[in-house]
C-alpha cells in the first residue's frame, strides 16, 4: 500500500469521527469575527482553514477584495488574489451541500477558479448571494462580530475592488478543533490494534 493510500484511508477514518462544528475567532485590524465551521459537512475545507489558522499561514495577510453588498475576500499570502495553497500543497475538491445556501449575510465560503480548485482563499458574504450556490463550498458562518463586518464593508476601494486602507487578518484563535480530537481518537484506536497484534504474536511463541 502506497503512502497516498494510507493518507487517504487515515483521512477517511478521521473525518468519520468528526461529529461537531468547529469554532474560530479571527482578529482583524477592524475587530474580531467569530466563525462557526461546518466540519462534518465540509471536512476538507474546514480542516484546511483550521490548520492554516493554526500554523499562522493567514497571519498578517490582507483582505484583498472588498465589494459592498457582496463579499470580503482573503486568504492569499501574496495579497494579489492570485496566490495561496491548500495544506496538502494542491487544490482540493468542492464539497457542495444542496441544503446550504449563500442566502444571508455572514456566509463563509471557499473562493475558487472553477470546479475543484479550492486552495486557501475564502470569502464572507455581506448579503444574500444565492446565485453562488453550487459553485462555491460553504463551510461556515459568522456567529459574532457583525460590527466588524459593518466597518469593513464601508471601507473605500479602488476600481479593482481593492481596499484603499489595508484590512488585515492579524491572527486567529481556535476554540474547537474537531479534527484534532478525531486524530487523537484514531491514534488511540491504532495503538489498541498494535497492542492486540503484538499480544497475538507473542501468544504464538508459547510452547504448550
TrEMBL record:
Ranges annotated as spanning the membrane: none
Reaction catalyzed: [protein]-peptidylproline (omega=180) = [protein]-peptidylproline (omega=0)
GO CC terms of this entry: catalytic step 2 spliceosome
GO terms for MF: peptidyl-prolyl cis-trans isomerase activity; ubiquitin protein ligase activity
Cross-referenced SUPFAM superfamilies: Cyclophilin-like
Matches recorded under PROSITE patterns: CSA_PPIASE_1 (PS00170), CSA_PPIASE_2 (PS50072)
Keyword annotations of the record: Isomerase, Rotamase
Record-level GO BP terms: protein folding; protein polyubiquitination
Residue stretches making up the PPIase cyclophilin-type domain: 28-174
InterPro entries reported in the protein's UniProt record: Cyclophilin-like_dom_sf, Cyclophilin-type_PPIase_CS, Cyclophilin-type_PPIase_dom, Cyclophilin_A-like
EC numbers, comma separated: 5.2.1.8
Family to which this protein belongs: Belongs to the cyclophilin-type PPIase family.
Function recorded in the entry: PPIases accelerate the folding of proteins. It catalyzes the cis-trans isomerization of proline imidic peptide bonds in oligopeptides.
Name of the protein in its database record: Peptidyl-prolyl cis-trans isomerase
Annotated organism of origin: Onchocerca flexuosa
